[in-house]
Structures are given as structure tokens and as C-alpha cells.
Design a protein that fits this description.
Layout lengths: L23 H18 L5 H8 L3 H10 L8 H19 L2
Helix pairs in contact: 1-2, 2-3
């Protein structure tokens, strides 16, 4: 996370996050994922930064987004950049 952070302490009912008995740590982890997903969905955070905020790997965060029907922030420019990277890779591979 950035060098400068803001600490926010919240008290939330467990019912917002879980059904049944769960530890406070699991509730905190779920709350962080949901907060990170909100910032990711409104494009305030990149995928990597949102996963970092949620304290999970990028793959775990992608799984969380999919489970909650949150679409990826992937636009035409990113697609074109990725296609150019793949094309360059394939050209380098064929030249070996």
C-alpha cells in the first residue's frame, strides 16, 4: 500500500458478512475483500492494488470478484496492449 495510509476502525454487524459462527478475523477478511471490490469496481484501485488491500493474491481476488458477479475492468486499450504483447512473444518464439 502507499506510504501514507488512513486507519479506519469500524464496528459492523456480523450478519452483513456471514451466516453462522465465524471468527472476527474471517469477518475482517471478508470486509476487506468487499471494500477492495468496491474500490476496484469504481476503478479507484487496479486489480493488483485491490488484491493487496484485501490481503489476497490476484487470483484469489479474481475468484472473489467472479463469485460476487463483479465484472473485470478490462477495456479495449488493455486488450490491444495484451494482443501486441502476445504477438511480440510469438514473433520472438518463432525466431529462436
Amino acid at each position: 500500500m502507499p506510504d501514507q495510509t488512513i486507519r479506519i476502525d469500524l464496528e459492523l454487524p456480523k450478519e452483513l458478512f456471514i451466516k453462522g459462527r465465524e471468527s472476527a478475523q474471517r469477518v475482517k477478511m471478508e470486509a476487506l475483500k468487499r471494500l477492495a471490490a468496491t474500490f476496484y469496481a469504481d476503478r479507484s484501485l487496479s486489480l493488483g492494488k485491490a488484491a493487496e488491500l484485501a490481503n489476497v493474491s490476484k487470483q484469489e481476488f479474481l475468484d472473489f470478484l467472479a463469485a460476487h458477479n463483479i465484472p473485470l475492468n478490462y477495456d479495449l486499450d488493455e486488450l490491444e496492449e495484451d494482443l501486441a504483447t502476445v504477438k511480440e512473444f510469438l514473433q520472438n518464439e518463432s525466431g529462436l
